[in-house]
Design brief:
Strand order of the largest sheet: 5-4-3-6-7-12-11-8-9-10
Structural class: alpha/beta
Largest sheet: 10 strands, mixed
Distance between the termini: 60 Å
Oligomer: single chain
Number of strands: 12
Radius of gyration: 29 Å
Shape: elongated
Length: 715
């Protein structure tokens, strides 16, 4: 029986092959976690065991290569998507410097070791050094698992990866072109023109096309397929431009970053499919390249592999150490940079295979002399294994430590009993998805958060049709929230009217924020002052957000925020500010603030501690509110901070805001925010027991302390 099975190897049945790989992925998750070994290491070793150089159970055929290529491109795409663009812009110079460190140091050590230790020619030594300079972010799933993708060290490393991989692959193109005699003026002109054309199409064309598609199509499956199609198109265009496909996939992630927020259901689907299937396929495929026989059959290969592994590791660690010293990063951040940048895989493999195929002469016996010989090829595979193992353990250890440090900061917030409790009254199936998306966007990730969807049925109505409609609405809300990996509590209740039902739900569930939606085709004046919403405002003290969505939240480019004079004197200031900051953080979009001098100074101070991309304009005359309309562009959203009557920042001009919005801001998303207040209607202050209070007349010291506690969760 065993002999019969061996004779059938490698397996050719596609169903059985797929099943075996899936069970390997599953076992890697379960067994290796028990021994605290990174999944990546287990998947690579598993690939070596079952591959053609191991037990020979599976062949590294076209299907494995295809899925592995998809996994690699997926990996680079996700890395581009998850970057906080505001942090990326803020840390771009740091990323550039790290990129030069992690390119220059390996190139220098690589050339010297190649010439003096491995006896290579200058072109071969330069090509070998470029392999050390490049790296692949295979440990990114570990970082994502620990939830530290927004850490500054991650942003700097990812930015540096783009720099060093691009330069390394350009070195590859130049060396190969030189050896083939193609290094002419036309070569440089073609490379420059094709690279600029590729960059322009992906950076400017893809966002425009995606924004149009997202506005026109609501189907989640179509959106997913469209985005993945763009990724592979970008990878193909990169190859046609003379670059590597991974550069195209990463650039596609950057260009679509703002259109796929990290709170969106679409990003959750992209990550799930990639991390569960395609990326593990890539790692198993890498393992299949490893041939354990080189350790016992060829001492030259062992020597070459040892030199390559040591040089690559030392050079990457030196680059990480210099980056830490330059920017005063912590030791854990240094280890994280090293872990992310030490793994050699995709670009390294591409370079060695290209170099191996370039024949630069022949021996007297007629044997081909290759730019990179057999020992370098085999040594590269061994280097890939060891650098990936080292990188995995370094990344896991540093990620754990950084996550614990951030958790300790979160405990400070938890001890202050700060909790987000967001209520979303629903009555219209058209805006359910957008209301949930806004709630997910404004809530704080590091604070305890609960979302509640509510449908109120008037007491006089007792029929199955009303209940069925309510059940359908609430079921849709639960599905939308689940799509972005969020939980939502659903409540259906009878009450004398909707406003009273919302007020009672706020008291019973100690709600901190209410998000209410308006129909797209209904003017704000039709359902604003003098009607339903005014009843809510007069009875409820919580932060109340009125949202009119005209386009998907993910397609918005900028948020224009109008803040009234004396807003800093309102007790609810910290609570709506944290919502605005969460929008800026979670979407990566620019916030354009219109406020008076004192408010702008508060905003700028917050920005220095908790960076978001923001512009500021002095504005205090709300009688001339239409000045703001001149700055509104296509795909902007307008946010207006309002106030209730008889409170510090209220002005009579606010009565005209609905009219202005209907006349001058008719084609943009609008969000009106009414700050939390005390003493409104008959609201029981017990409903606000989790909210610390301060009196604006006592000065800003206590208010500053509250704001400091709230904003700790943004770190």
């Amino acid at each position: 029986m065993l002999e019969q099975f061996v004779n059938t190897l490698p397996l050719t049945n596609p169903v059985l092959i797929f099943a075996i790989i899936l069970f390997i992925i599953l076992l890697a998750h379960i067994i290796l976690h028990m021994f605290k070994i990174p999944d990546l290491v287990g998947l690579i070793i598993a690939g070596a065991i079952i591959g053609p150089n191991g037990l020979g159970i599976l062949a590294r055929d076209s299907s494995i290569i295809l899925f592995g290529t998809v996994g690699l491109l997926y990996l680079m795409f996700i890395a581009g998507l998850e970057i906080n663009m505001a942090d990326f812009k803020k840390n771009s110079k740091k990323g550039l410097l790290f990129g030069m460190f992690t390119f220059g140091i390996p190139m220098t050590l690589g050339v010297l070791s190649g010439i003096h230790l491995l006896n290579l020619s200058m072109p071969s030594a330069i090509l070998l050094a470029s392999m050390y300079a490049s790296h692949t972010l295979i440990t990114y799933p570990i970082i994502s698992k620990y939830g530290i993708t927004k850490n500054r060290a991650v942003t700097v490393t990812v930015a540096g990866t783009v720099v060093t991989d691009t330069l390394a692959l350009l070195v590859l193109a130049v060396i190969v072109g030189m050896e083939k005699g193609e290094l002419t003026n036309f070569f440089w002109i073609k490379l420059a023109v094709s690279t600029m054309a590729f960059g322009a199409i992906v950076i400017y064309g893809f966002p425009y096309l995606a924004r149009w598609f997202f506005k026109k199509v609501d189907d989640s499956i179509s959106k997913y397929i469209f985005v993945i199609g763009l990724v592979f198109l970008a990878a193909f265009l990169a190859e046609r431009a003379g670059l590597e496909a991974i550069i195209g996939a990463f650039l596609a992630g950057l260009s679509l970053n703002r259109l796929i927020p990290n709170t969106s259901a679409l990003l959750n689907r992209i990550e799930f499919v990639g991390n569960a299937l395609f990326i593990p396929f890539f790692l198993i495929g890498i393992g299949m390249l490893i041939d354990y026989r080189v350790f016992i059959s060829d001492w030259t290969t062992i020597y070459v592999a040892a030199i390559m592994t040591v040089v690559a590791t030392i050079s990457k660690y030196t680059a990480a150490w210099l980056t830490q010293q330059s920017f005063r990063f912590t030791k854990n951040e240094r280890l994280l940079i090293f872990g992310m940048s030490n793994s050699q895989a995709a670009a390294t493999l591409a370079a060695v295979l290209v170099g191996y195929e370039v024949i630069i002469g022949t021996t007297p016996d007629g044997e081909p002399i290759r730019l990179l010989n057999d020992s370098i090829l085999n040594g590269t595979i061994v280097m890939i294994l060891f650098t990936c193992i080292i990188a995995s353990f370094a990344t896991q250890k540093s990620s754990q430590n950084i996550a614990v440090e951030e958790l300790s900061e979160d405990e400070i917030v938890d001890n202050e009993d700060i909790e987000d409790r967001i209520l979303i009254p629903l009555n219209n199936p058209e805006n359910v998805e957008e209301l949930i998306n806004l709630a997910v966007t404004i809530k704080s990730k590091k604070a305890k958060s609960t979302m509640t969807a509510l449908n109120v049925i008037p007491s006089e109505i007792h029929d199955s049709h009303a209940e069925k409609k309510a059940e359908n609405l609430l079921e849709k809300a639960a599905k939308v929230a689940a799509g972005s990996d969020n939980k939502i509590t659903t409540i259906m209740r009878y009450d004398e009217d909707a406003a009273n039902g919302i007020k009672n739900a706020i008291k019973e569930h100690k709600i901190t924020d209410v998000i209410m939606g308006l129909r797209q085709q209904v003017n704000i004046t039709d359902s604003f002052y003098g009607s339903f919403v005014e009843k809510i405002l007069s009875k409820c003290a919580t932060t109340t957000i009125i949202y009119r969505p005209l386009q998907p939240l993910s397609t918005v480019k900028r948020y224009v925020v109008a803040i009234p004079p004396d807003a800093e004197k309102e007790i609810g200031l910290p609570y709506w500010l944290i919502r605005l900051w969460n929008i800026g953080k979670n979407t990566g979009n620019k916030m354009v603030f219109y406020a008076n001098t004192s408010m702008i100074s508060i905003l700028k101070e917050l920005q220095t501690k908790h960076y978001i991309d923001a512009d500021y304009h002095e504005f205090s005359d709300w009688d001339d509110f239409l000045i703001i309309s001149r700055d509104i562009r296509d795909n902007d959203a307008l946010i207006v901070i309002m106030s209730r009557k008889n409170y510090p920042s209220f002005t009579k001009s606010m009565y005209s805001i609905p009219t202005y919005i209907n006349k001058y801001f008719l084609n943009v998303n609008c969000i009106l925010i009414f700050p939390l207040q005390i003493g409104i209607g008959d609201q029981d202050l017990g409903a606000l027991q989790n909210i610390p209070h301060t009196d604006a007349n006592d000065g800003f010291e206590e208010l500053a302390n509250i704001m400091a506690g709230l904003f700790k969760r943004l770190k």
